[in-house]
Design a protein that fits this description.
Helix content: under 10%
C-alpha cells in the first residue's frame, strides 16, 4: 500500500518541531495564508 494519498484523507495539526534537535520549538498559532491549503 504505497503511493499518493489524497489530501481529503489527511487530517492533522502540527504543534512542535522536534527534528533536527537545534530547531526544537513550539509552532506559533499564526497561519500564513500562502501556506494553507483549502
Amino acid at each position: 500500500m504505497f503511493g499518493p494519498v489524497p489530501k481529503a484523507l489527511i487530517y492533522g495539526k502540527a504543534t512542535h518541531i522536534i527534528w533536527p534537535m537545534k530547531r526544537w520549538t513550539k509552532l506559533s498559532k499564526h497561519l500564513q495564508s500562502e501556506r494553507v491549503f483549502p
